[in-house]
Design goal:
single chain, Immunoglobulin-like, 2 domains, 14-stranded mixed beta sheet, five-stranded antiparallel beta sheet, PhoD_N, Alkaline phosphatase, PhoD-like_sf
Length: 503
């Protein structure tokens, strides 16, 4: 083997260890890779899930129905010569043989490397890092992504994201899709097939996550940096809202609990479900530079108005309607009011800015997005007033967008309250295109929207004290592996200037 670089270690999955990792074979329990998440100044969550057969129909990944001890270690160098901590965790069948290690007492603002061992096998190595100390104004490279539909394409965008080597990755939902094979078809046709039925039971969800997480491009993205994740609808059921499914289902509460449990088992998060709730809203401070307010816009929302869909609906304006629920909304507004961060960033799921889909007279609005919860959005926008630089990050809509959030969206002269950056999908929608024939007319109808692109990809951001730069990164195709990536457009948000400036 030639010289080992960080890129070959993390992107290529080479584990240079004191013990030689066995090559992948049916007995290897680390087929789903490794991950880390939710860094703090002194710690991070390390994750793996044991699965000898990721596609096993019972959801147990070919593992025995007994607990397994898993050794872990974390080091300050990629060759693991300087072990900082090590320990033993227990992978239990009732938790899908997942492991969540909440490592503490690490140094702030440091890069670390970690790995696991069990049954005579050593996992690939992962790279992670802690957040800077509270007083630090350390720069940050952060990527965010959403919407990876396995059937619609190859996860090349995850691989390209990993090659960009960000410090932090946010995933804003639709990590996996719940449909039975062939039900959800991309415009150019499906190019891969999912195993198993539509995800309804815990075994179904575990099997589906197993198939997704066995993908090597996704594993590369998890191994390169810590993630902070929130879900959207497809982790449970299309367009679910609070306790309501999209279509009537006799056993939706049981399905929702199963989905919540599987999500916890497969994500590098600290909290497990408690009863019928999995609390995902939380804050991730990055020194004095940025605070990420990670939101859950599914679990506590009111049902969509007027039966959902694209329409003009007076009920969407009702002041009692909530997207976040009372407790989460108060938590967010209190956090914004007391923040001293240079950048306050909302990591959330659905389109925040108002968007009129009708060209000319009349309005047509998407009721599953914040347009269906207009009063709730107004309360959040009012909460931006004391914030130095409010930025909303969004997934869900399968295209890249950049928008200025207006106090009165239909008045171009209205004050700009904040900015919104929307990531396109990893694969959902298939290969896509640069734009639609209607795009110029849509943008003219919505002058606060400054950018649109319909390729697949992600957004790469660079935070500094003086500006936030956003590069909209897109791949040319997902219908086959190996697409190159390019920057489709770049925007800068200057400190104290609530506007998008195209570079």
């Amino acid at each position: 083997m030639g010289s080992v670089t960080r890129r070959t270690l993390i992107i290529g999955g080479v584990a240079v260890t004191a013990l030689t990792a066995a090559s992948a074979r049916p007995s290897d329990p680390f087929t789903l890779g490794v991950a880390s998440g939710d860094p703090t100044p002194d710690g991070v969550v390390l994750w793996t899930r044991l699965a000898r057969d990721p596609l096993a129909e019972d959801g147990l990944g070919g593992m025995p129905s007994r607990s397994t001890e898993v050794r872990w270690e974390i080091a300050g160098d990629e060759r693991f010569r300087g072990i900082v901590q090590r320990g033993v965790a227990t992978a239990r069948p009732e938790s899908g043989h997942s492991v969540h290690v909440d490592v503490r007492d690490l140094a702030p603002g440091r890069e670390y490397f970690y790995r696991f061992a069990a049954h005579g096998h050593v996992s690939r190595a992962g790279r992670t890092r802690t957040a800077p100390g509270p007083a630090e104004m350390t720069g940050l490279t952060m990527a965010f992504a959403s919407c990876a539909q396995f059937e619609h394409g190859y996860f090349t965008a995850y691989k390209r994201l990993a090659e960009d080597e960000p410090d932090l990755i946010l995933h804003l939902g639709d990590y996996q899709y719940e449909f039975e094979k062939g039900v959800h078809v991309a415009p150019n046709g499906n190019v891969r097939v999912v195993d198993g039925p539509a995800t309804v039971t815990l075994a179904n969800y575990r099997q589906r996550y197993g198939q997704y997480k066995a993908d090597l491009d996704l594993q590369a993205a998890h191994a390169v940096a810590p993630w902070s994740v929130v879900w959207d609808d497809h982790e449970v059921d299309n367009n679910w809202a609070g306790g309501m499914p999209d279509k009537p289902q006799a056993h939706f509460p049981e399905r929702r609990r199963a989905a919540f449990q599987a999500y916890y088992e497969n994500m590098p998060i600290r909290r497990a479900p408690q009863g019928d709730e999995l609390r995902l809203y939380r804050r991730l401070p990055w020194g004095r530079l940025a605070t990420f307010h990670m939101l859950d816009s599914r679990q506590y929302r009111d049902d969509q108005a007027c039966g959902d869909g694209l329409k003009d609906c007076p009920d969407r304006l009702l002041p009692t309607r909530t997207m976040l629920g009372t407790a989460q909304e108060n938590w967010l507004l209190n956090g914004l009011r007391t923040s001293s961060a240079r950048w306050d960033v909302l990591g959330q799921q659905v389109f925040f800015s108002q968007y009129d889909h009708t060209i000319g007279t009349g309005e047509t609005l998407l009721l599953d997005a914040w347009d269906g919860y207009a009063a709730a959005r107004d309360r959040v926008v009012a909460g931006f007033a004391p914030v130095r630089n409010p930025v909303v990050l969004t997934g869900d809509v399968h295209a890249a967008w950049g928008a200025e959030i207006k106090e009165r969206w239909d008045d171009p002269a209205s004050k700009t309250a904040g900015t919104e950056l929307v990531s396109t999908s990893i694969t959902a929608g298939g290969d896509g295109s640069e734009e639609y024939p209607e795009t110029p007319s849509w943008l003219a109808e919505n002058p606060h929207v400054k950018y649109f692109n319909n390729r697949r990809g992600y957004v790469l951001t660079r935070f500094s004290a003086g500006e936030l730069r956003a590069d909209f990164r897109g791949v040319e195709y997902v219908s086959r592996p190996g697409s190159p990536v390019s920057t489709k457009a770049s925007f800068v948000i200057e400190d104290r200037v609530r506007a998008l400036h195209r570079v």
